[in-house]
Specification:
heterodimer, A: 188 residues, mainly alpha, Rna Polymerase Sigma Factor, Chain: A, 9 helices, 70% helix, B: 100 residues, 54% helix
Amino acid sequence: MKQSFPTPSQEQADADQAIIDRVLAGETDAFATLVLRYQDPLYRHAVNMTGSPDVAEDILQNSFIKALNHLGEVRGRFDAWVFRIVANGCKDWLKNIRRSHVSYEEDDQPSSFDTPEEAMARTELASDLTRALNQIPANMREAFLMKHVEGLSYEEMADLLGSTVGALKMRVHRAREALQALLEERYA
Amino acid sequence: MMMDNLDPREHVAPATGVTPAAQADEEMALDREIPRGSRTSAAVHAWLDGESVGEAQLAAADREVALWRQIDQEAGRRRRMTTPTTLTDRIIAAIPKGSR
């Protein structure tokens, strides 16, 4: 099953809507299909935005429960709608961290790579990249992750974020400038 | 009852969940806060954006290219990250059964 953004076709969007209709008709178990379909890219996004698998888990669980409770409010594509819920959850968490002046360090690194071997192969770059990502503004980080981790085109990002290609390209470029400045001394 | 604002298009910028003013503040803060090192060259931006770039242009930016190849490798590793099964189980267990 494909688990990446964005929804690739109208057919998939129609399939999502059919599930939503079933859930709203009382067949709530069907919501699990939407969870399984979209959880991976959403989880990745939350881990990379917050730098913490534990925080990402809380955000993802809360977001899916919110989505279920407000499913009747979906207008347009479900994947874009639920992405916004998760993205806002990440940004709210980041704002609270900043407001409370808590010095937050990522809790080691993402813990759920495909294989234990991959987890063992964590590099210093992985740790340094997480630290660097945490030093740039959330909007820049979000755009960078969508482009470089999820591999989306600017057009796909614009669809999901409700922004323009030009604005997103600028955010990605500025994120690259910042990350390069933070990492080049050690890695270039 | 507190309602969650699930549609950020209402009164706030789409998807960001923040007002345009707050977003402008953040963009201005970026200029003050982001570190300034050497500029990423236009050729490297184009290459990273999937555009056609000449070999000579990339060769002239070999240190940048080496850095971004490493970052891309790490990004690829993150792309394979999957949701812990314990989390999936928790979310699905939280879905009410039957009629709501």
